[in-house]
C-alpha cells in the first residue's frame, strides 16, 4: 500500500440520519415550506457531508497549487510559461484575484509549489516541488506513475494541514500555464469526449491557437493511449502535477468529512479524477460556478453537479468557488440562526 493511500483513509458515505434531522428543522423555520429553494437543499447536503445537523462552514480554506507544463512550448497558451512563477509570487504578495476574494470571505490561504519550472523563493510558498514542470505531452509522458502518486500525496497532506488549522470547507485552485490543455486531455481520456467538444480557448487563444490546442490534445491521446480504467495512468501520461495535487486535496478533505466547493474547469477535472480514484468522494462535492470553458459544462454533467453561480468566469485560482462561498455560508447560517415557528411564536400553516 502506497503512502498516499494510507494517508487517505476511508471516505465515509453521507450521513442520512443527520440529513433528515436537518431537513425536519429547516421545514420548521419561519418561512413557507420550500421557499428558500436550493438553499434548503444545500443546507441538508452540508449536514449529510459533515455529520452535523447544524453545520458550520467558516472559515473556508483555499489551497492554490502551482506547476508548469511542458506542453506550453507548443503554443497552447496566450501567455509565456514564466507567468506561472510570477503569478505564484503575486499570490504570496496578496495581489491575485483569489487573494482578494479569499480575504473577503475570511479564508485561510495556502500556496503550494508542486512543480513550477523556476523555483520561487518567497515567504508564503509551501515547497512540495516534485519536478520542474511536467513533460511535454505531445512528445513524452507528463510524469512517471510514481510522480503522479506523489502529486496526489502532496494534495492530501495539504488538505489535512488546512483542515487541521480550522478550515470547514475546502476550495482548491491552481496556477499553471498550459493546464487547460492537460485538463482537456484528462477529461477526454477519462470520458471519451471529443476534443473538439471540450477544448476551449483557455487564457484567450486566437482561432489559430485554439485549433492548434485541439490538435495537441488529440495527438497526445493518440501517442500515449491512457487507460480510462486507471486514473493514475491518465494522470501520469497526459496530466499535470497541480491537477494531481488538487485531486489529492479533494480526497483528503472528503476523508475528513469536509465539503469541497469546486471552482472551474481545471478544478472540476481534478474532482473527476478524484472520483475515479475513490467514487465516494463525489458526495462531498459542491459545484461553485459554471465557467466559460466548454469542457466545464461537460465535466459538471459527468459528475451530475449543478453549479451555484454562472458569472461567465474563466480565471481559475479558485476564484469562482470563493465567490460562491457566501451562498454556502448562507445555507449554514439559515439552519443555525433562523427562528422556528415555535421559538418565534409565529403561527404555522
Helix and strand arrangement:
Layout: H1 3-8, H2 16-26, H3 37-50, E1 60-67, H4 83-92, H5 97-104, E2 108-115, E3 125-127, H6 145-164, E4 169-175, H7 179-191, H8 195-198, H9 207-224, H10 231-238, H11 241-255, E5 260-262, H12 265-277, E6 285-287, H13 294-303, H14 319-337, H15 341-344
Parallel strand pairs: 1-2, 1-4, 2-3, 5-6
Helix pairs in contact: 2-3, 3-14, 6-10, 6-11, 7-9, 7-10, 7-12, 11-12, 12-13
Descriptive notes:
This protein is of the alpha/beta class and 349 residues long. It has two domains: 11-55 and 334-344, 5,6-Dimethylbenzimidazole Phosphoribosyltransferase, Chain: A, domain 1 (Orthogonal Bundle); 60-328, 3-Layer(aba) Sandwich (Rossmann fold), CATH 3.40.50.10210. 50% of the residues lie in helices and 9% in strands. The protein is built from 15 helices and six strands. The chain has helices spanning 3-8, 16-26, 37-50, 83-92, 97-104, 145-164, 179-191, 195-198, 207-224, 231-238, 241-255, 265-277, 294-303, 319-337, 341-344; strands at residues 60-67, 108-115, 125-127, 169-175, 260-262, 285-287. The chain has a four-stranded parallel beta sheet with strand order 3-2-1-4, with helices on both faces. A two-stranded parallel sheet has the order 5-6. Helix 12 links the parallel strand 5 and strand 6. Helix 2 (16-26) packs antiparallel against helix 3 and helix 12 (265-277) packs parallel to helix 13. It is elongated. The N and C termini lie far apart (57 Å). The relative contact order is 0.18.
Amino acid at each position: 500500500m502506497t503512502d498516499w493511500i494510507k494517508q487517505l483513509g476511508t471516505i465515509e458515505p453521507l450521513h442520512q440520519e443527520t440529513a433528515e434531522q436537518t431537513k425536519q428543522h429547516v421545514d420548521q423555520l419561519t418561512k413557507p415550506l420550500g421557499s428558500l429553494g436550493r438553499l434548503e437543499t444545500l443546507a441538508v447536503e452540508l449536514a449529510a457531508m459533515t455529520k452535523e445537523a447544524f453545520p458550520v462552514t467558516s472559515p473556508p480554506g483555499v489551497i492554490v497549487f502551482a506547476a508548469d507544463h511542458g506542453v506550453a512550448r507548443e503554443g497552447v497558451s496566450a501567455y509565456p510559461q514564466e507567468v506561472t512563477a510570477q503569478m505564484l509570487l503575486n499570490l504570496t504578495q496578496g495581489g491575485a484575484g483569489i487573494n482578494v476574494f479569499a480575504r473577503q470571505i475570511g479564508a485561510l490561504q495556502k500556496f503550494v509549489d508542486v512543480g513550477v519550472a523556476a523555483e520561487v523563493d518567497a515567504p508564503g510558498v509551501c515547497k512540495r516541488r516534485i519536478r520542474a514542470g511536467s513533460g511535454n505531452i505531445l512528445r513524452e509522458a507528463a510524469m512517471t506513475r510514481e510522480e503522479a502518486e506523489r502529486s496526489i500525496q502532496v494534495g492530501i497532506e495539504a488538505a489535512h494541514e488546512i483542515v487541521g488549522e480550522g478550515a470547514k470547507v475546502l476550495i482548491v485552485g491552481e496556477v499553471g500555464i498550459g493546464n487547460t490543455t492537460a485538463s482537456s486531455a484528462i477529461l477526454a481520456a477519462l470520458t471519451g469526449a471529443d476534443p473538439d467538444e471540450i477544448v476551449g480557448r483557455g487564457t484567450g487563444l486566437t482561432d489559430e491557437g485554439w485549433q492548434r490546442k485541439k490538435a495537441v490534445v488529440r495527438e497526445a491521446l493518440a501517442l500515449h493511449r491512457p487507460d480510462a480504467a486507471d486514473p493514475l495512468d491518465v494522470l501520469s501520461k497526459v496530466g499535470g502535477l497541480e491537477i494531481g495535487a488538487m485531486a489529492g486535496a479533494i480526497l483528503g478533505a472528503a476523508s475528513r468529512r469536509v465539503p469541497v466547493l469546486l471552482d472551474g474547469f481545471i478544478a472540476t477535472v481534478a474532482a473527476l479524477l478524484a472520483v475515479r480514484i475513490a467514487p465516494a468522494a463525489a458526495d462531498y462535492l459542491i459545484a461553485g460556478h459554471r465557467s466559460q470553458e466548454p469542457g466545464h459544462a461537460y465535466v459538471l454533467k459527468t459528475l451530475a453537479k449543478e453549479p451555484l453561480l454562472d458569472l461567465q468566469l474563466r480565471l481559475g485560482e479558485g476564484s469562482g468557488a470563493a465567490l460562491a462561498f457566501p451562498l454556502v455560508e448562507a445555507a449554514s447560517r439559515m439552519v443555525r440562526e433562523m427562528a422556528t415557528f415555535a421559538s418565534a411564536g409565529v403561527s404555522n400553516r
